Amino acid sequence: MPRPLAPRVTDLAPNAFSAMTVLAQQHGAVNLGQGFPDFPAPEFVLQAARDAFTTGWQQYASPRGWPRLQHAIAMTLEPNLGYLPDAVEEVTVTIGATQALHAALQTIVSAGDEVIILEPRFDSYSPQVRLCDGVPVPIALEVVDGRWVLDFDKLRAAITARTCAIILNTPHNPTGKVFTQAELEEIAALALEFDLWVIADEVYDRLSFEAPHISIASLPLMRERTVTIGSAGKIFSVTGWRIGWTVAPSGFSAALRAAHQWVPFCATVPVQEAVAVALELAQTNGYYASLNAQFKTARDYFVPVLERVGFKVLEPQGGYFIIASCDALTRDVLEFSRFLVTEIGVAAMPVPLFHDPETRHLALPALRFAFCKRMETLQAAATRLERLIR
Ligand SMILES: Cc1ncc(COP(=O)(O)O)c(C=O)c1O
C-alpha cells in the first residue's frame, strides 16, 4: 500500500461544473451550466494574439508580470479604483483570477485562520481557503423583497479573533448582485474595525447593467487593505487564456510575489502581450460599452423566457448568471436539474452546489443559468424549455 495522500487534497470534492458540462455533452443539452462564452473573442483581441505569437517575446518574463501588461492593467483600473496603481509595485499578473485568489489567500491565511465567504459563492472560494489550511466561514446572502441582501449583524457576529479576510465578489456570481456604495461602506467599516483584508473579486466589473460597478478599494483607507482581482478571460471572453491579476499595496504584493515566483513563475508571455494590446485598444474603441450592451440584451431576452415557462426569477444586476427559483416545480432541485439536462435538454447549475455541504440546507431551491451565450444558443434553450409547459 503506498502512503496515504494529503487530506488537504483528498478531502476536496470534485468540480461539479465540469461534471455538468460532461453530462450536457452526453445528452446533447444546451449548456447553460458552466459560465463560459460560446461566441468568439473580438477580432482586435484575436489579432493581438496572432501578432504576439508571431513576432513577440516567447521566453520567460518577470514573475510579477509582463511590464506592458502591468501598465495596461493599472491604466484600465484607474477610473474604478480612483487612483493609478503603481504598475511595477502593485500589479501582479497571474494565471487567471483563480490563481490570483490562490496567491492572495496564500499571502493572508495561516493555518486555522478564518475567511468570511458570502454564500451562494463562486465554487472555488472554500476549496482555496482549505488548500491554505484555513477555515471558510460562510454567511448566507438572503432574498428580501426579491433582492439579495447581506445581513450586517450576521457578518459582524461571524468575525472572530481568527478572522483574517473577507472575500467580496461584485458583481456577484451566482446571484448577479451588484453591491451598492452603502453596502461597501459597511463592509469597509468592519474591515477597518477588525483589521481584515478584503479580497475583492471584481472579474465581472465591466458587466454591471444598471448602477455603476464600485471597487471597494476606492473607499477611504481601503487601498491599504484590499487585494483587487480581475480576469482578462472575463473581459475579453477568452476564459481559456488564463490571464488574471492582483492589485494590492506594494508590501502585500512583494509578499504575494515571494510565493508566486515559485509556483507558476510567470503567466504565458505572448498571451500577456496580447492582453496588454487589447486593454490598450479597449480604452478608446468602444468595446466595453458594446460588451455591456451585449450581455444586458442577453439578460433581457432570457429572464422573460424563464418566467414564461414558470420560473420565478431574481433579475441579476450584473455578471454572467440568472438565478431562477423552481419551488413551483415541486421537485428536489438537484433531481430537477438532472431532469432538465436529460429530459428537456438544458443544463443549469443547482444553487445548493454554491454552498458548502454544511450550509446547503440554507440554499435557495433554485437553478443558475449562464446567459454569457450567443443569442442562437439562448433561443435554442428557450425552445427546449417550452417543453416544461407542455
Ligand atoms: C466570481 C469569479 N471569480 C473568479 C473566476 C475565475 O476567473 P478566471 O477564469 O480568470 O480564473 C470566476 C470564473 O467563473 C468567477 O465567476
Characteristic key phrases:
390 residues, alpha/beta, Aspartate Aminotransferase, domain 1, Aspartate Aminotransferase, domain 2, 2 domains, four-stranded antiparallel β-sheet, 42% helix, binds pyridoxal-5'-phosphate
Describe the structure.
The protein has helices at residues 7-10, 16-26, 43-55, 67-81, 87-90, 96-108, 125-131, 152-158, 181-194, 232-235, 250-260, 269-282, 287-308, 333-344, 375-385; strands at residues 30-31, 91-94, 114-119, 135-140, 142-144, 147-149, 163-169, 197-201, 226-231, 244-247, 312-314, 321-325, 346-347, 349-350, 366-370. The strands form four sheets. It has a seven-stranded mixed beta sheet, sandwiched between helices. The protein is 42% helix and 16% strand. The chain has 390 residues and is of the alpha/beta class. The chain contains 15 helices and 15 strands. The chain has two domains: 7-41 and 287-388, Aspartate Aminotransferase, domain 1 (Alpha-Beta Complex), CATH 3.90.1150.10; 43-282, Aspartate Aminotransferase, domain 2 (3-Layer(aba) Sandwich). The site of pyridoxal-5'-phosphate has 13 residues, from α6.
